[in-house]
Design goal:
This protein is α+β, with helices and mostly antiparallel strands and 54 residues long. It has 1 helix and 2 strands.
């Protein structure tokens, strides 16, 4: 999988520097690879976060 990551906040693309990209990619790949029954090969991984409203 070629590492590509995009961060959007409220629909707006936020630029990530190389250090932050590397952290996100390694964190997500490490967590996903630790799970059972992940389809191989992994082509895309999608994560959606919706912060809890206070």
């Amino acid at each position: 999988m070629k590492d590509k990551i995009e961060l959007k906040v409220n629909g707006r693309v936020i630029a990530l520097n190389p250090f932050v990209k590397k952290i996100f990619v390694n964190l997500v790949l490490g967590a996903v690879q630790a799970l059972d029954k992940i389809p191989q090969p992994m082509e895309t991984i999608e994560i959606t976060l919706q912060p809890e409203k206070k």
